[in-house]
């Protein structure tokens, strides 16, 4: 189906498609521009998810001792040991705290309900928000990998596997963040719970205690949650070790499970 409009200043006639796909595309593009501007203006939302991780990797890269191999870290430098953890820190904050806070705020303000009366829809808003946060996560993760390389530390030996693990990690956290937004009505409570879940992921990835010092039982346990699985896959890729299939299966499983739960429980109002 098409709609014809006439420009009264030029007399020209334009034909615009009104098929469902075309309407979705236009609404999605409008939401994408809007969400990009809003997220850019809300600097506080990006401090912990983007600015703080980038500042940490820049400071570590500037310290010569952090670039040298350390026996206590299994022959890895401090920078290489913590690079996967910093990637995980950034993606977990973006997925587990920003997404629930934004979606919960929209629901609480009645924005999602009002969208039902417009050509747009909650689905286009949700898709646009996911794309914006996903894009920020990819950019920050790429910079966390690139900055150490600029000071001579080098890129992960298996860069492709590292990138795949990073993408799957971000998707898993976005899915879990949507679950929090679905089951917790208050955006403040959802964001708070997101911080708790994120802290669990940081611990399992070795933020406070490197995983080299974990007992075997704790390694096995943390490998079953996204934080540990992501750290294992990215560390193996950094070292040039062929990653096992298990971490990737764990990340995909959590993504699929989170998406299914979110779809079944999410309420627009």
Concise overview:
This protein is mostly helical. The chain has helices at residues 20-41, 43-62, 78-108, 111-115, 122-150, 159-183, 187-205, 216-222, 226-239, 245-265, and strands spanning 2-6, 13-17.
Outline the structure in words.
- Helix 6 packs parallel to helix 10, helix 7 crosses helix 9 and helix 9 runs antiparallel to helix 10.
- The mean pLDDT is 83.
- The protein is mainly alpha-helical and 269 residues long.
- The chain has a two-stranded antiparallel ribbon.
- It is built from ten helices and two strands, in the order E-E-H-H-H-H-H-H-H-H-H-H.
Query: How big is the Rg?
Result: 21 Å
Termini distance?
31 Å
Strand content: under 5%
Overall pLDDT metric: 83
Give start-end ranges of low-pLDDT stretches: none
Question: Which terms would index this structure?
Answer:
two-stranded antiparallel sheet, single chain, 269 residues, 72% helix, mainly alpha, 4% strand
């Amino acid at each position: 189906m098409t709609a014809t409009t006439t420009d009264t200043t030029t007399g020209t006639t334009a034909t615009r498609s009104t098929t469902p796909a075309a309407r979705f595309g236009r609404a999605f593009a409008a939401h994408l521009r809007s969400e990009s501007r809003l997220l850019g203006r809300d600097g506080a939302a990006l401090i912990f998810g983007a600015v703080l991780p980038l500042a940490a990797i820049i400071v570590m890269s500037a310290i010569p001792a952090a670039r040298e191999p350390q026996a206590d870290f299994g022959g890895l430098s401090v920078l290489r040991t913590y690079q996967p953890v910093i990637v995980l820190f950034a993606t977990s904050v973006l997925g587990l705290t920003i997404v629930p806070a934004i979606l919960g705020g929209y629901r609480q303000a009645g924005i999602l309900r009002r969208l039902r009366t417009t050509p747009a829809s909650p689905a286009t808003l949700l898709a646009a928000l996911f794309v914006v946060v996903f894009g920020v996560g990819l950019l920050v993760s790429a910079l966390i990998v690139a900055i150490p390389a600029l000071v001579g530390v080098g890129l992960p030996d298996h860069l492709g596997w590292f990138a795949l693990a990073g993408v799957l990690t971000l998707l898993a956290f976005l899915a879990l963040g949507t679950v929090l937004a679905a089951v917790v009505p208050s955006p403040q409570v959802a964001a708070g719970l997101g911080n708790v879940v994120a802290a669990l992921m940081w611990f399992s990835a070795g933020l406070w205690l490197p995983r080299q010092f974990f007992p075997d039982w704790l390694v096995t346990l943390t490998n079953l949650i996204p934080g540990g699985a992501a750290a294992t896959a990215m560390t193996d890729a950094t070292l040039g070790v062929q990653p096992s299939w298990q971490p990737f299966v764990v990340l995909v499983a959590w993504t699929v499970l989170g998406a299914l739960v979110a779809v079944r429980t999410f309420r627009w109002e």
